[in-house]
Amino acid sequence: MKTILVPTDFSDVSRKALNVAKSIAQKTHATIHIANFYSIPSGSYAFPDISMPSDIIEEIRKIAVEGVEKCANELKLEGFTVESTVEMGTASDETAELAKKLNVDLIVMGTTGADGIINKIIGSNAAHVMQKTEIPIILVPKDCDFDGIYNVIYLDELKEDDAKVLSKVFAFSDEIGIHNIKLLNVNTGFFYQPINAHLLIHFNRVFGLDKIKLDTVDGTDVKEGVNNYLEKHQIDLVIMSTNKKTLLERIFIQSNTQTMALYSKIPLMVYHKE
User: Fold this and answer.
1) Residue 267: closest CA among 24, 99, 27, 45
2) Closest of 110, 112, 107, 92 to residue 260, by C-alpha
3) How far apart are CA 16 and CA 160, in angstroms?
4) How far apart are CA 135 and CA 101, in angstroms?
5) Domain spans, the chain
């Protein structure tokens, strides 16, 4: 891993995202690229055509630059290699473009709730960025109490065409010193489909003995099963692989308050399947 992009608005949740990025960069020696996207109000509802005076625009840009420089200098004092970008725009629109331009390996961003099931859990900006990029992204919730990545679960169905995404997941986990990942399988009762044992053996042969450890939990549906597991185990990172947001919708649709509360405390890493 060479570069980690961290969009920031200098909020508490952005600082939490930066802490996650720092933990990964310490182990991978990656460069942390801080980005701030500032927007200029275009006028009031009553007077939409009134533009912002140039001196105020410059002051907004100056505040953004100073904030990024302060953050970058603090990281440099801690021994990190740091790059930065300050651009006019919004994080939801510009993050994916900047990530592609810089050819980053990972995006780490804080999340805040908004309207809609997916947005309430992962935040509207994060949901938008996820749909615009295929670069792996770690979503760090505002209530996350992060102390490093030690225990990881992979939440997905195991299929024959998962070899490519699994190779990326294991390459990442090896870089951060996690040498096996638990594959969480939810027993939902009547319609329960257990993980293909032959496929599990095959992937363990491909990626290394016991690279994937199977863990099963009961639940009336996937959401409840994941909840049950997270309540009983200390998990630092949940990894999913998805085609756009289909898996996220399956996991989070009809989420209740309890589901949202649990997912609001644990970073979620999303890989896109090819």
Assistant:
1) 24
2) 112
3) 36
4) 12
5) 3-141, 152-272
Tell me the per-residue pLDDT of 163-181, one tens digit each, with 9 for 90 and over. Answer: 788 888 888 998 999 877 8
Contact 158, 195 (CB under 8 A): yes
List per-block mean pLDDT (blocks of 10 residues) for the chain, which spans 274 residues. 94 93 96 91 51 78 93 96 93 90 95 46 63 87 87 80 82 87 78 67 72 80 80 88 57 42 73 77
Backbone angles phi, psi at 267, to 5 degrees: -60, 140
Other residues' Cβ atoms within 10 Å of the Cβ of residue 260: 15
Strand partners, 6: 34
**Residue appearing with tokens 């990190």:** 80
Amino acid at site 114? A
Domain 3-141 fold is: Rossmann fold (3.40.50)
Helices (H) then strands (E): counts for the chain = 10, 10
- Rounded to two decimals, what is the model's pTM? 0.83
Closest alpha carbon to 226 in 197, 257, 186, 194:
186
Instruction: List, in order, residues 6 or more apart from 123 with CB less than 8 Å away.
Output: 110, 111, 112, 113, 114, 139
Residues 55-92 pLDDT 10s: 888 888 899 999 999 999 999 999 999 999 999 888 88
Stated length of the chain: 274
188 touches 219 (CB < 8 A): yes
CATH superfamily of 152-272: HUPs (3.40.50.620)
Strands 268-272 and 137-141: antiparallel
Q: What is the CB neighbour count within 10 angstroms for residue 133?
A: 19
Rounded distance between C-alpha atoms, residue 255 and residue 250, angstroms: 10
